[in-house]
Amino acid sequence: MLPYAAWLSWVIPLVGSLFVPLFFRLGKKVGEWYSVAVVAIAAVFSISMIPDAWGGAAQVIRVPWLPLGGDAWVEASILIDPLSVMMASIATGVGALIILYSVGYMAREEGLPRYYFFMLFFIGGMTGLVMAENFLQLYIFWEIVGLCSYGLISFYYKKKEATHAGIKAFVTTRVGDAAMLIGILLLFTSLGTFNYFEVGERLHEALTAGNMGVGFVLLSMLLIFGGAVGKSAQFPLHVWLPDAMVGPTPVSALIHAATMVKAGVYLVARLILTVIPFEAFSPAMLAEWYTTIALIGGLTAFMAATMGLVSNDIKRVIAYSTISQLALMFAALGMASEVGWFGGIFHILSHSIFKALLFLAAGAVIHAVHTNNLDEMGGLRRYMPITFWTSLIGVLALSGVPPLSGFWSKDVLIESALEAGNVPVYLLMVGASILTFIYSLRWLYKVFLAPPSPHIAEHGAHEAPKVMTIPLIILAGLTLVVGFFEPFLGDYTGIHIAGPSMVTLLSSAAILLVGGGVGYLFYIGGVVRPEQVRATPIGGALHKLLVNRYYIDDIYYKVFVDGFDRLSGVLLRFVELRVIDGFNYAISKATTAAVQVFRNIQTGESNINLSGFIIGIAILLLLFISLILG
Amino acid sequence: MSFDFTPTLNTLIILTVISPLFSYASRRTGVRLLADAYAIMAFAASLIIALTQFSEVATNGPIIRVAGEDPLTSTVIYVDQLAMYVAGIFIFIGLLAAIFSVGYIEERKPEYYPLLLTMVTGMVGVAFAGDLFLLFIFWEMMSISSYLLVAFRYRNWEAVEASFKYLIISAAGAAAILFAMSFLYGMVGTLNIAILAETLATGVAAGEFWSYVIIALLVAGFGVNAAMFPFHSWLPDAHPAAPSPISAMLSGVVIKTGIYALFRIMTFVFPATLFDWSIVLAIFAVLTMTVGNLMALLQEDIKRLLAFSSIAHIGYILLALSIFSVGGLAGGLLHILNHASMKALLFLAAGAFIHATATRNIDELAGIGRTMPISAVAFTIGAFSLAGIPGLNTFWSEAQIIIAGIEAGFTVFVVIMIINILISVAYYLRLVQTIFFKPPSEKAMKAHDGSVSMITPLILLSILAIVIGVYPAPFFKTVFNIARILIASP
Questions:
Q1: Which ranges constitute the DSSP H helices of B189-301?
Q2: How far apart are CA B403 and CA B395, in angstroms?
Q3: Which of A121, A193, A293, A589 is least buried, going by the fewest C-beta atoms within 10 A?
């Protein structure tokens, strides 16, 4: 470990972000390469911690931070363990590649200082989030990354849908965050500490001593899980992520694929590993909590995948896929087993890489054809070979085709559901995986293989510049090899699992056969035309339901947005204008009147000043005398 | 005859005495930079020495130097952590004011820097003095140089009038202090603070009528300097009339010298555990903060507004002193640091605006945030900090005072303080709103950020605000250590 790496890995980008505008004053190139350098340095610090965490070693650093009066402190604490170091390395490592890619992708945009400030601030916040060893720090960084996400989704603030999507993301995740904050404060008020390990120990003590029921643990953990649902865009708070795709593509790749949306998964993995470990809190005791996670995960995985089938936006398809893949991780974590936990974080690793790859590839396509609409693409294989081949690797990894990374990690996920004997979730997982293969092939076909749209047929397209293709190639290379890291990851985390069972392998084969088969029939092979399905009554109705995203957004808008609008209209007319405003005006009038009284004393005349002095002494003396006598 | 004032004060005295030579050389050769560089170097050197001396005092305990044979009548230097803490603040703000002055002060710099150095030397001398007579001499050294600095632009009638008023009322205050000292000498036969503490802080004197006369005179005398109500009326005239770096010094640290003297004497010689002054001082404290905040609300002049807000903050610190618990004193000490740095930041930023626009009227500074972004952002950080926004430094000291007040049963006073903080938010937000969100005035359109020397202190103080705001632990440890020593003292 480099000296102070656990701190510098996140302090450097956080503080460095503040100087972005300064460096942009010296020139656009200076600012851009300064940003790349800051994140690269942070990445070096993060990666240098890997040997220290090897084998599952956990190391905690705590320093006094906020005073609680006297010698009691809320401590600032840092945790160096396999999970935190892995997440930090992803945030800074993938972050560095994406910042590099931005140099090319964002070259002609306005407001670059703002863009790089938020990106660096985000990377610092995300790294701080995963390195934190207490809930308070976690929460602060949690909000920092939320703020950056908002700022970057709304980056093109002149577009109305961009600001709208930013607000939607911010408000929707805030619902989960509120639950999480309540959970954290519940724990703090009853246990008097924010530190993960201390919370775990004190909870365990209170449980064994009988001072506290299991219900309290369940409640606080469920509330904290609420934060994870919002951040990781799980049902019912998944609605913000597809809309967030109006942000710049590198933002989607970094924040809405590789890192921030993983924060929820990370949080649950962290709770299971550190706060409520299996040894002290048996899965049977917290069965309701685990079941909730597994069910929400399974349902979301399947639902999001169905919506991904019909979207016509190159980035939204990948966004639905992200929701679905995150949900698979949750489902595995909900299996309450070592296999599930290992599968969850293995999939975090592989998904971060191939999903960042897919987004960056999508960005390269958008950069070339200036549209997000899949129907206006097609035939790009000829014009953009590097993008095509790297996308192909990404798509195959996402679909779980051996020997790419997705195959290995998805196997562990399915294995965990089988091992736990959770048939419904197993079926949802398999279903989601089949759909994943189908929409991935559809995406690949529509972008690269389909007959070119009239526009492309006429004008052609150009391959992306080198700063953009190099990150693509690096990420594709990583996708090819990460699958074989499974034993190393086992050594690293200290958790060794057996190889996949026969049923798992058969499930995988079935997924590939069915998914690939349908995908071939409809798209690559062109045997059945999707329009034919849409023409049937059931197919048509289903298509309409999916295109309208199960009408969940509509319901939210009707109930919450319009409802609050109406409610606040009433409040404005009867409470705000009459009661509160009247009260405010009364206060300001009274204060102004009081000030006029004091103004009369403040004449600036030396005679009056000196009399004030003498009167003051007299009052002091009188008061003291009355105190002594009385 | 040679006498050791401890390294920090020795350095300051020697550098101050030599400074006119450099000023003379600077004037004769016409190299203006010479005077600038000398002053900055002098402050920086003393600051470094003060920091080493602080760690020395923190590890080895107080440094005591007695000049003669008989401790009763000799000159005494007594340097403990409290003295080093405030001295460090004085020198630090002095350094920043000197840096700012390089770009700000345009005339008669050779006279300016020796006066500034004399003022800081006087303040550090007050902090280090172990007997009241030495304290009084340094006190006058500080006061006289500050009269001159207020009237520095002597062609301007406002400055001369303000300075003269300041002189008269301060002289009255000094007379009260001297009078109290003569009583003390009559009662005990010494002015050595340590011996006074041993003799008086035993409980016998607590029933004595004359003790309270002394306390009243001391509170009034130092209260004049600290701008405690009803002795504050000179401040709103004097502070705005001075050049901005001097306003920063006066509002930031000079009024803290009076506070320091009160902290020193009221904890050492007349501890509230024996002498019954807590409630009286608390009443004056809430009056002070209320008058300061209410008067600040409707000011048109940016520097006058800031000056009134200084009175309010003195009220908070006096309340902390009257709470007289470890937590209260610690909160007060931390607030000394926070208010000194933030008020200096605000006055310096306001000085940058005034330098660029030649107006002190708040309405004419509207929209200046667009043309002077760095100064305006620094100003906003200072305003938000003093308004008590969490995440910036002043929040912590105000919260500490409030918590300590509630623990000590000062609930009524604490409630008044909280209302006062809310009032202060109103005028700080008004300032920020005017600076950033109103359409720029004609004068503001032509403004632009000042030179490096004017920007540097602003950036340093803004960073300090954020550092203490997000990582207050080491500062809390320091002030709690000092407060424990003060409460545990005889």
A1: 193-200, 209-226, 235-241, 244-249, 255-268, 278-297
A2: 12
A3: A589
Contacts of B207 in chain A (CB under 8 A): 628
Cα distance between residue A170 and residue B29, in whole Å: 63
Inter-chain contact B233–A627, Cβ cutoff 8 Å? no
The pLDDT assigned to A334 comes to 92
CA atoms of B47 and B91, how far apart (whole Å): 6
Give the model's pLDDT for residue A70: 66
Q: Which residue has the tokens 């300075």?
A: B163
pLDDT at A579 over 50: yes
Give the pLDDT of residue B2. 58
pLDDT of residue B262 exceeding 50, the answer is yes
A63 touching chain B per CB within 8 A? yes
Q: Do A65 and B473 touch (CB under 8 A)?
A: yes
- Contact flag A595-B279 (C-beta cutoff 8 Å): no
Residue positions counted in chain A: 630
Which pLDDT does position A630 carry in this prediction?
63
Q: State the Cα–Cα distance between residues B344 and B143, nearest whole angstrom.
A: 19
Whether the pLDDT of residue B490 is over 50: the answer is: no
Rounded Cα distance between B380 and B384, Å, is 6
In this predicted model, what pLDDT tens digit does every residue of B71-93 receive, in sequence order? 888 889 999 999 999 999 999 99
**CA A83 to chain CA mean position, Å:** 16
Using DSSP's 3-state secondary structure scheme, residue B130 falls into coil
- Judge whether residue B119 has pLDDT over 90: yes
Q: pLDDT tens, B266-305?
A: 998 888 888 888 889 999 999 999 999 988 888 889 999 9
Q: A75, A63 in Cβ contact below 8 A?
A: yes
Give one DSSP letter per residue of A582-617, joined into a string: HHHHHHHHHHHHHHHHHHHH----HHHHHHHHHHHH
pTM: 0.84
State the smallest CA–CA distance between residue B283 and chain A in angstroms: 10
Question: Of A126-140, A461-475, A580-594, which has the strongest mean pLDDT?
Answer: A126-140
- Tokens linked to B422: 């809310």
**How many CB atoms within 10 Å of residue B389?**
15
From the list A214, A146, A131, the residue with the least C-alpha distance to A180 is A146
Tell me the mean pLDDT in the region B462-479: 92
Name the residue among B280, B400, B477 with its Cβ closest to that of A624.
B280
What residues of chain B lie within 8 A of the CB of A628, using their CB? 207, 209, 212, 276
Which residue do the tokens 């609008």 mark? A565
| DSSP state, residue A464 | P
Helix, strand, coil percent content, chain A, rounded in steps of 5: 80, 5, 20
What are the tens digits of pLDDT across the range A188-216? 998 888 999 999 999 999 988 888 888 89
Strand, coil or helix: what is B108?
Answer: coil
CA distance A438 to A309: 7
Task: Note whether A259 and A352 are within 8 A (CB).
Answer: yes
C-alpha span between A29 and A495 (Å, rounded): 45
For residue B1, pLDDT beyond 50: no
For residues A179 and A223, the answer to whether their CB atoms sit within 8 Å is yes
Interchain CB distance below 8 Å, B169 and A609: yes
pLDDT tops 70 at residue A380: yes
Contact assignment for B276 to A628 by CB distance below 8 Å: yes
Q: How many residues does chain B have?
A: 490
Residue from A111, A58, A105, A78 nearest A4 by CA:
A78
CB A359 within 8 A of CB A319: no
A136 contacts A184 by C-beta, under 8 angstroms:
yes
DSSP assigned state of B129: B
For residues B247 and B240, the answer to whether their CB atoms sit within 8 Å is yes
DSSP tag of B251 = I
* % of chain A residues with pLDDT over 70: 99
Cα(A20)–Cα(B179) distance, integer angstroms? 59
